[in-house]
Amino acid sequence: MPKVLSEDAIRRFREDGHHHPVRVLDDDQVRRFRTALEGFEARHPTETRKLKTKAHLLCPWVDEMIRIPRLLDVFEDLIGPDILCWSAAFRVKEADGATFAGWHQDTVYSPVRPNLTFAALALSECGARQGCLSVIPGSHRGEILPHAESSDPTSILARGQYITSDIDTTQAIDLEIKAGEIALFDHGIIHGSRPNLGPDRRIMILIEMMPTSAYLVRGQESATLVRGRDAYGHFAGERRPTAEFGPEEIAAWHAAVGMRAKNIFADSKLPVSEAYGGGKATAA
Question: Cα dihedral sign for 166, 167, 168, 174?
Fold first, then answer.
């Protein structure tokens, strides 16, 4: 028996590649985690882009977020009881009317098979006005489309990637969620997001999970076991943080994102972004 999702919701997720909303945080948790994020930004203003990849290695409070029992129950309904976290990645849009994500598929640069499952967890209002995620239902069951990269500073994506072939976006839907809710989507679904036109920041963290049976088709990667057991060992283990942005945490983060950057930027003409251990800044 599923723990949170209905059998129908699970079936529709398989078919459509998305499901929302599901509440996983109460109001007190939302306030506490948003306060922790904004405290980090105040203490480390030049380091915030590092939270765009594997933030769970840098901050104990992010490590706590990826282990929230109700969140893991939802993932267990979809991918089983043995769960690895590949990344926890903040996607913050200031109310600037500029920052966006072009239509893309995350599988184009990912070496993980089968597809990862994402939860977009909101710490603020993430509606259409705030530039929530938009997806094309069922597109995860199609082929991986050709992409190009760009150095557009307003793109929230590491390579400014976007699909170059014609796609029908008339069927796209907005995954509107409130603070404390998640929207689930398949790694291969075509998705993007518009600029934030609201009065507040759009604060969202992408929590990327996979079953321990998942494997790599190239390179090396690391992951964190968050539930169950890993009988496969396809991914290097990761150190749990004990201090926020301490020297051991920074070293562990660099080791992990260094491996990931080799896959993400393998064929790129762009320099490795700061979010992946390089020196180039991308939109926060």
Answer: negative
Residue with tokens 């992409």: 147
* pTM of the predicted structure, to 2 decimals: 0.95
Packed helices 7-16 and 69-79: angle between N→C axes, nearest 10 degrees: 70
For 104-132, the pLDDT digits (tens) are: 999 998 899 999 999 999 999 999 999 99
- Measured CA to CA in angstroms, residue 158 lies from 50, 228, 276, 281 at distances of 12, 31, 8, 9
Q: How far apart are CA 278 and CA 223, in angstroms?
A: 20
Domain ranges across the chain: 7-276
pLDDT one-digit tens code per residue, 242-258: 999 999 999 999 999 99
Q: Which residues pair with 122 in a beta bridge?
A: 204
Q: Selecting from 3.30.870.10, 2.40.128.20, 3.40.1010.10, 2.60.120.620, what CATH number does the domain 7-276 have?
A: 2.60.120.620
The alpha helices in 44-128, defined as continuous H runs, are: 60-65, 69-79
